[in-house]
Design a protein that fits this description.
The chain contains 6 helices and 10 strands. The chain is α/β, with parallel strands linked by helices. It has one domain: L-asparaginase, N-terminal domain (Rossmann fold), CATH 3.40.50.1170. A hairpin with a 4-residue loop joins strand 9 and strand 10.
């Protein structure tokens, strides 16, 4: 029985990768370009103001440095602001950075207050049509808070940006939204579609 088992191992060997899967594996090795704009996900609690304040620089590259991710990443800091303080110049810089990015997979971290507005701004002004762009953020900062929805939302955005078709999306609360339909429901503490729940 032992000899037969060893023979079977030699016969079976490693499973070959079907040709149809090779393209998917190559695509998944593409770099994900992260663009940071601040927001709660990249904030800390400031006791003297009794609110959260954006960090000087994003904590996300340091968090990713602790993980054993298969994806390759590139990071660009657009600004570090509460989304209610984003200026027209910030929006133009975001648009320009996306237009000039050499990558087709992009994740934008953003404050939740104006995230839908920024996603709609890109949707209306972006000339390129070959990129998958996912906005995400959090209601609880990653730095100093456990658990935080920020880590979950980042992981969800990473997964979805690799399989969604080209376009602009918002990934929050375990769901992908079209910028045209999304709004922040303050009374529920999450995002929702203006068209209601999916059936």
């Amino acid at each position: 029985m032992v000899e037969r088992s060893l023979d079977m191992r030699k016969v079976i060997g490693p499973t070959p990768i079907p040709p149809t899967m090779k393209k998917d594996i190559k695509d998944n090795n593409n770099v994900i370009h992260f663009l940071f704009t601040g927001g709660t996900i990249d904030s800390y609690y400031e006791g003297t103001k009794d609110t959260v304040v954006p960090l000087e620089h994003s904590i996300i590259p340091r968090v990713f440095g602790l993980l054993k991710l298969y994806i390759k990443t590139e990071f660009t800091e657009i600004c570090m602001k509460d989304s209610r303080s984003l200026s027209d110049e910030d929006m133009k810089n975001l648009l320009k950075t996306v237009e000039e990015s050499p990558h087709s997979h992009i994740i934008v971290t953003h404050g939740t207050y104006t995230m839908p507005d920024s996603a709609r701004y890109l949707q209306a002004n972006l000339k390129r049509k070959d990129q998958t762009i996912v906005f995400t953020g959090s209601y609880i900062p990653i730095d100093g808070f456990s658990p935080s929805d920020g880590s979950f939302n980042l992981g969800y955005a990473i997964a979805r940006v690799q399989d969604l078709p080209s376009g602009i999306y918002v990934a929050m609360n375990g769901r992908v939204f079209n910028p045209a339909e999304i709004r922040k429901a303050l009374y529920e503490g999450r995002f929702e579609s203006i068209f209601g729940e999916k059936l």
